[in-house]
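Notes from the pairing session

We agreed to fold both candidates in a single pass and log them together. This is the raw record for the first candidate, unedited. Please don't reformat it; downstream parsing expects exactly this layout.

Candidate A
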Amino acid sequence: MSNIINKIARRIAETKFARNAIADAADLSVFKEKPSAKTFFGIFLMGISYVMGLPAVGLLGVYSVYYNDVFLILLGGPFLLIVSHLVFLAGMYLAGGRYLMVIIRWAARTVLEKYIQH
């Protein structure tokens, strides 16, 4: 089984992405820097999206029962969930865009170096 994993790791290490990650010694030093206002706003949007998601739909369901209006939850529930997902994606774009490739490059380098050495 380890022979298969080693062969797969060697094939992946031949790709341009993996060669660059290993050659650049990709690390996580970017996380030592102070986050920008854009990053904080992205994290804030991701947090708000959780409040807009299921808790808001639950509250909308309570209002729907209280006012005896089924259309409130039938139309408002999916709308709130869609908006919540869009807000989360915007937050991911603002906060995580810079860091995502750093993590992927670091993970690729560490995993490949582990399996290529053996």
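Candidate B (folded immediately after A)
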Amino acid sequence: MLSYFLVTHFIFQYVRVNGSSMSPTLFDNESYFLNRGVYWRHEPRRADIVAARDPEDGCLVVKRIIAMPGESVYLDRGNVYVNGQLLNETYLPRYTLTFACEKNESEFFIVGNDKFFVMGDNRNNSCDSRIYGPVPRQNILGEVIK
């Protein structure tokens, strides 16, 4: 019983996606494994899908890491640039555009130390770091396995 508790609360557990912000990669009301132990071995990486606590209200969100601590993110005319380089997002459908909050033409972010810039794959329907800013490392609970 103790080993079941330890595994399901500290290593693997289920997480349910609520909403379409990760579509078409993950689907609304579907459950996925959350690997809470993966980041004991290494830090989160760009393109990882993670479960994190929303910095504004503390609820659980599932998003993709776009930029790492200390990097810059520039959203311009539907494109995402990290450290001045166009981000190659092979996980998104072709011709997916990413706009800044409220469809501003461009927006620039600096990701602070020990923070990560996250976005949903459904860029037109995602509340993410474009709205609430980079997510502190301690808010990232683990990697979602699809």
